[in-house]
Amino acid sequence: MAVSEDIDAAATAAHGLISGAATLDALKAAEPEILGKKSALGQFKRALGGLEPDERRVVGQHLNAVRETVSEALDDRRAELAAGERRAQFEEERMDLTEVPTDPGLGHLHLVTQTVQRLEDVFVGMGFTVSEGPEVETDWYNFEALNLPKWHPARSMWDTLYLNLDQGDNVLLRTHTSPVQVRVMQEQAPPIYTICPGKVFRRDTADASHLPAFHQIEGLVVDEGITFGDLAGTLDEFTSAYFGGAIKSRLRPSFFPFTEPSAEFDINCVICEGSGCQTCQRTGWIELGGCGMVHPNVLSNVGIDPERYTGFAFGFGIDRLALMRHGIDDLRDMFTNDVRFLTQF
Ligand code: PHE
Predict the structure, then answer these.
(1) C-beta of 315 in contact with ligand 1 (< 6 A)
(2) pLDDT at 302 over 90
(3) Count: domains in the chain
């Protein structure tokens, strides 16, 4: 039947157009020619009207079946092209994660943090616990409880930064870590063997050996029968554990309101090991911190019986300790965060 053959030929042409379209756009542009009203297959619809009813039915069914197949092929091709284009887009936008360097230059702990950890290790090895407290304190914890009443002239030893909270000069940035010791004594009955590392703040202008925010570590021991000899022995033990056997410590009389007697704690210069150099001004000694026997008033202030218990305390600057150990000549270098400096430690 001639018409059916024509239909088959038109269908073949339509399938050719479908598979020949290389992109979605090309397929869309070809659609009117494939199944549109003016396409060959579209024209047959109109031609049906001129056929005998019997023939019209047979040819009509054939035409519908053919159009159905062409329409399915069109859908399949459209889906195939869309998937291909999506794949191409993914490929183009794909991030090549293998380009991330295998050594991204990971950071490490800051020198001060490393120093704190090393100090903690030494003291924990000697049986001390580690205590922490708030950096914002009240006058009572920072001064009063430590035997420093408001009128005490020694308060000028600490250039205090007060917080403007409409509470007068009552709330401040702690000037030392000693208030942590007060808190420990309030919370815990003797025996107490603890160290308190942390940040402290003073109204100092930064220079090579001062910073307005720096780090301290203080130690506190309260027990029965504690003597000045225990203090000296502990500091000597610490010095050789931290700096090595060649470095010794010594005590010089001094004054702190919260300790009696009080002493300054020196160690052999770590640069020249005691023979005398520029760093130690040819004395062979470097001052590390203060110490002494806990003043009985301080024990009474926190409800510990000074007749039964005695104790000692010591405190020194961590940043300066790190400075000495590594031969750094300006404290400010520690906190300007220049990686060329930081990566050396
Ligand atoms: N708290 C003192 C300071 O900041 C140091 C110190 C601690 C002195 C313990 C004696 C005993 O200077």
Answers:
(1) yes
(2) yes
(3) 2
One domain, residues 86 and 174:
no
Cβ burial 78-115 (10 Å sphere, 16+ → b, else e): beebeeeeeeeeeeeeeeeeeeeeeeeeeeeeebbeeb
Return the ligand 1 atom nearest residue 289 CA. Answer: 5
77-111, pLDDT tens digit by residue?
A: 999 999 999 999 999 888 877 766 677 677 889 99
Atom 4 of ligand 1, nearest CA residue: 176
> pLDDT class for 188, splitting at 50, 70, 90?
very high
CA–centroid distance, residue 78 to ligand 1 (Å) = 82
Query: Residue 172 belongs to what domain range?
Result: 111-342
Within a domain: 103: no
Residue 128 CA to ligand 1 center (angstroms) comes to 18
CA–centroid distance, residue 314 to ligand 1 (Å): 6
pTM of the model: 0.68
Top pLDDT among 228 and 38 is at 228
Residue 81 lies in a domain: yes
Are 206 and 58 within one domain? Answer: no
> What atom of ligand 1 comes closest to residue 219's alpha carbon?
9
CB of 142 within 6 A of ligand 1: the answer is no
CA of 335 to the centre of ligand 1 (A): 23
Angstrom distance (rounded) from CA 216 to CA 174: 11
Tell me, what's the pLDDT at 104? 67
The predicted structure's pLDDT at residue 99: 67
Supply the pLDDT for residue 157.
Answer: 67
Q: How many CB atoms lie within 10 A of CB 37?
A: 10
Q: How far is CA 10 from the centre of its chain?
A: 72
| Domain assignment present for 322 | yes
State in Å: Cα 164 to ligand 1 middle. 26
Is 211 within 8 Å of 331 (Cβ atoms)?
A: yes
